[in-house]
Amino acid sequence: MKCKRILFLTGIVLAAAALAVAAGFTTAEAAKAQKAVILATTTSTQDSGLLDVLIPMFEKKTGYFVKTIAVGSGQAMAMGAKGEADVLLVHSPAAEKKFMADGNGVERRLIMHNDFIIVGPPNDPAKIKGVKKAAEAFKKIASSGSIFMSRGDKSGTHAKEMDIWKAAAVKVEGEKWYQQTGLGMGQTLAVAAEKKTYTLADRGTYLALKKGLGLDILVEGDGILLNIYHVIEVNPKKWPKANFAGGKAFADFMVSKEAQAVIKTFGVDKYGSPLFFPDAGKKVEDLGL
Amino acid sequence: MDIILDGIRQAFILLFSLDPEVIGITWFSLKVSGTATFISLFIGMSIGTVVALTQFPGRHLVVSLINTGMALPPVVVGLFVTIFLWRNGPLGFLEILYTPAAMILAQAIIATPIVMGISLASMQQLPRKLRLQILALGATRLQMVWILIREARLPLLAAVMAGFGGVISEVGASIMVGGNIKGYTRVLTTATVMETSRGNFDIAIALSIILLLFAYLINLVLTYIQQRERPR
Asked: Interface pTM (ipTM) of the complex?
């Protein structure tokens, strides 16, 4: 009998705890939920610090509240395709085109570019320094059996790397010299530096981490190494719960003169050269290295 | 070695200059993990006590499940909480993914089995005859439970420390359900991960030191309460 009373009391305590939590949810969050925009983006825009400048500007101007979820471009698009993000800032053009063709996005606009670089230890065991073509350099890395550190995370950088392997006609699966971190760009660069291996990096993250890394730029300037960022609004017809107005406001902001001016000069004071080049209104075909 | 010394110096600069961002992140970490631990105390201690003091068929199975739950990996909790809280998931109507509420929920799920398991063990190690004696003195069942909890308060405080320690140091679930959003869901652990991947090792070390410092201070207070009177 009395045992039942204990269970009853336990139940009351449980219910009270649940209520307290639920009350916390609704009161504090309801106000913010209305104006929240979920931005799914690649790690490089956050790790380089660019978004720390742009997002407060956007929030101040529009009153929206941006929830930045920094993941690889692959995961960002997967979130968009499931309606779990409102707007994407990504750099994986082939996958983006498929994303649009599948009807997941409304509009895809060019924002900015920089470039990828092949970095490696200064002693350069595969002798790729100064090679003009990225594919040629990858072939040399493969044939010399020097270790290459891949992101291996379906990010935009990883997609670009796979393109270059394809161009080089090298099969990497199961090769001993081909290793995958499954981590973001910053961490992959740190692993590559520690193990003195080659890797493909976006210039922005490399410049931000360069100090004390001990990896040199060995190959740059090939057309295939172009790194292009687009902003995509998620299709509200497919996902009525998505905050389309907020997503569109963010996309519009990214192509605005104000934001483009910030992108143009971002990083100059710290690294001596800009990390990104603003491209709003241009065509991809006109970009070049 | 230089980098560690730099980190320590940076930690003191950040702490004593009362850097608003670091203070904000620290305070927020304590708030989230404190709330989660508090919730887990209610649920964990009540269920732990009931299981410790009753006999029922399948009890061994329940106890083994609770003990397994003590080793619940935070990333697994993070993954499932994320899937449930997706806008188009079963609990999507709550709209709490990437909010502090989601972090509290995930951390409470991580801490509850820890608190439950330790409460269960500490209530069970009380001498069996104590219960009979208390009842024989005319206490009601409820009074008996209260006296037993008082008797077991030293190991129960260990449950609080273990639960709190488990969630304040956890990163996997917090980054998945919170999203590490600046000024909103960024806690000490997720900030440390981000600063590391940005190559700001000195700030990462500074944040780690602040985290250790607060974990130590809180456990110091709890230990002081626990050891105030020597166990007989």
From this structure: 0.80
